[in-house]
Specification:
The chain folds into 2 domains: 248 residues, 3-Layer(aba) Sandwich (Aspartate Aminotransferase, domain 2), CATH 3.40.640.10; 140 residues, Aspartate Aminotransferase, domain 1 (Alpha-Beta Complex). Helices cover 37% and strands 14% of the residues. The strands form 2 sheets. The chain has a 7-stranded mixed beta sheet, sandwiched between helices. The protein has a 5-stranded mixed beta sheet with strand order 8-9-12-11-10, covered by helices on one side. α7 links the parallel β4 and β5. α1 runs antiparallel to α3. This is Aminotransferase class I/II-fold pyridoxal phosphate-dependent enzyme. Its cofactor is pyridoxal 5'-phosphate. GO terms for molecular function: carbon-sulfur lyase activity; pyridoxal phosphate binding; transaminase activity.
C-alpha cells in the first residue's frame, strides 16, 4: 500500500546542525564555495544541491519544500514569498507573449486581476469559463493555450473542480493543468488526480496561525528547477523567494496540519447542517444539496472531511455587514479576509477578496451582495458557537427565534 500524505509527512525527520530535533535555520543571504569552478557550475545550472544566494535557494526553504512535496505527492516543491508569488511565477514560466490561458471564472480576486488585467502587458489573454462544464472548457482551448488553471475548491463560491477529468482534457491537448489547492490541503490531492502543478497559499490552512505570507509550487524536478534557473527562471528572476526564518516557522506548524484540518471540517460540517436546517441558503461541499457533493466524495480523502469554508447568503449587503460586525462584537471571530486561522474569519467577498471582479461578472457567476464567506475555526464547543451565531441572526431578523418545546 502506498503511503498517504500524512504518512509521508510523519516520516520526514531532520536533525539540526548540532543534533537538534528541529533543522537548523540558515540565516544567510549568500553562501560560500570551496572552488571557483563550483560557483561557475552553479550559475550554469549544473550543480543541483549547491547553495548560491537565498533568492535561488536555501537549506530552510528546501526543508519546507520537501515537506510540501510529501504533502502533495510531487517530486519536489519551491516555496515562495506569497501565494501570488507562486501563481505569477508559474504563469510566466509557462506562457510567452501572445499565449492564452483557460481559467475557472470563480477564482481568488487577486488571481483574476493578474490574469485579466496585468497579463495584458505581455499580450497574454485569458478565457474565464465555468470550470465544472468540461464541454465549455474544451471549446475555450486554442492553439495558443498554454495552461488550464483552476482552484480545487473555488474561492469564494466553493465550486468543485473535476481534476481527473480536467487532467485528461489537458493531456489530450498537450497542455499542463495547474491547480490551486489552498482551500483543501489533505482533503484533496490534485497531483494524484493528474494535476501537473499544484499551488498553495501557505498563508492559510497550511501555516494556520495568520502570522506570515507565503506560497508554494509543487511539481516535477524539471519544472521546479526551471523556475529557479538563473538565466530564465521566473521564480528566480521575479524575486518571489520566501525568507528562511518564515520557512522554518511554517515547517513547524505543518506538524499539526492533519489535526487542524479534521477539526476545521468537523466544525464546519456541524454549522452548515444546522443553518441549512434553519432554512438559510448555505453552500458547503459536505452538504448533499451542494452541486459537487457526490463528485467530491468520489475522489476526496474522506478522513479529513469537506474543508473549513462555507458561505451563507444573508439576502443583502447591509444584513451581511451587520451580522459580521455583531459576530465580531460577540467574540465569535474576526471580520477579516484570509482563512485557516484558529478563530473563525468572515468577510463579504463581493466587496473584499473578489472585489477585483466586475459587478456584472460577479452576478453572472452567482456571487451575490449578501454572501458571507466563513472560515470556521477550531472551536472546542461548536454547538455553543452555533447558538451564539444564531442569536446574532435572530437579533438582526435574519432568522426567527426557535419556538419553545411544550
Amino acid at each position: 500500500m502506498k503511503n498517504k500524505a500524512t504518512d509521508n509527512l510523519q516520516d520526514l525527520q531532520y536533525f539540526g546542525e548540532y543534533g537538534g530535533v528541529n533543522p537548523s535555520i540558515s540565516d544567510s543571504s549568500t553562501y560560500t564555495f570551496l572552488s571557483a569552478k563550483k560557483m561557475f557550475d552553479t550559475f550554469e545550472g549544473n550543480t543541483e544541491g549547491c547553495y548560491l544566494y537565498t533568492r535561488h535557494s536555501s537549506p530552510s526553504n528546501l526543508y519546507l519544500g520537501e515537506a510540501l512535496a510529501a504533502l502533495e505527492g510531487t517530486e519536489t516543491a519551491n516555496v515562495t514569498a506569497s501565494g501570488m508569488g507562486a501563481i505569477t511565477a508559474v504563469t510566466l514560466q509557462l506562457c510567452d507573449a501572445g499565449d492564452h490561458i483557460v481559467s475557472s471564472r470563480t477564482i481568488y480576486g487577486g488571481t483574476y486581476a493578474f490574469m485579466k488585467n496585468f497579463l495584458k502587458k505581455f499580450n497574454i489573454s485569458t478565457s474565464f469559463v465555468d470550470i465544472t462544464n468540461l464541454e465549455v472548457v474544451e471549446k475555450a482551448i486554442t492553439p495558443r493555450t498554454k495552461m488550464i488553471y483552476c482552484e480545487a475548491v473555488s474561492n469564494p463560491l466553493l465550486e468543485i473542480a473535476d481534476i481527473k477529468a480536467l487532467s485528461e482534457l489537458a493531456k489530450k491537448h498537450g497542455i499542463p493543468l495547474v491547480v490551486d489547492n489552498t482551500f483543501s490541503p489533505l482533503s484533496i490531492s490534485p497531483a494524484k488526480l493528474g494535476a501537473d502543478v499544484v499551488i498553495h497559499s501557505l498563508t492559510k490552512f497550511i501555516n494556520g496561525s495568520s502570522d506570515c505570507v507565503a506560497g508554494v509550487v509543487c511539481g516535477t524536478n524539471d519544472f521546479c528547477l526551471a523556475l529557479k534557473d538563473v538565466h530564465s527562471g521566473a521564480g528566480m528572476l521575479l524575486g518571489s523567494t520566501l525568507d528562511s526564518l518564515r520557512a522554518a516557522s511554517i515547517l513547524k506548524n505543518m506538524r499539526t496540519l492533519h489535526i487542524r484540518i479534521k477539526k476545521h471540517s468537523e466544525n464546519t460540517q456541524y454549522l452548515a447542517e444546522s443553518f441549512e436546517k434553519d432554512g438559510l441558503r448555505v453552500v458547503y461541499p459536505g452538504l448533499k444539496s451542494h452541486k459537487g457533493h457526490e463528485k467530491l466524495k468520489s475522489f476526496m480523502n474522506h478522513e479529513f472531511g469537506f474543508g473549513g469554508l462555507m458561505t451563507i447568503d444573508m439576502g443583502s449587503l447591509d444584513k451581511a455587514n451587520a451580522l459580521m460586525e455583531l459576530m465580531q462584537e460577540r467574540k465569535l471571530g474576526y471580520l477579516a479576509v484570509s482563512l485557516g486561522f484558529y478563530k473563525t474569519l468572515f468577510s463579504a467577498p463581493g466587496t473584499s477578496t473578489s472585489s477585483e471582479i466586475p459587478l456584472e461578472e460577479q452576478k453572472q457567476m452567482g456571487l451575490s451582495d449578501g454572501l458571507v464567506r466563513f472560515s470556521i475555526g477550531l472551536d472546542n464547543d461548536i454547538e455553543r458557537t452555533y447558538n451564539i451565531m444564531r442569536e446574532c441572526m435572530v437579533e438582526l431578523n435574519i432568522l426567527e427565534p426557535k419556538t419553545a418545546m411544550v
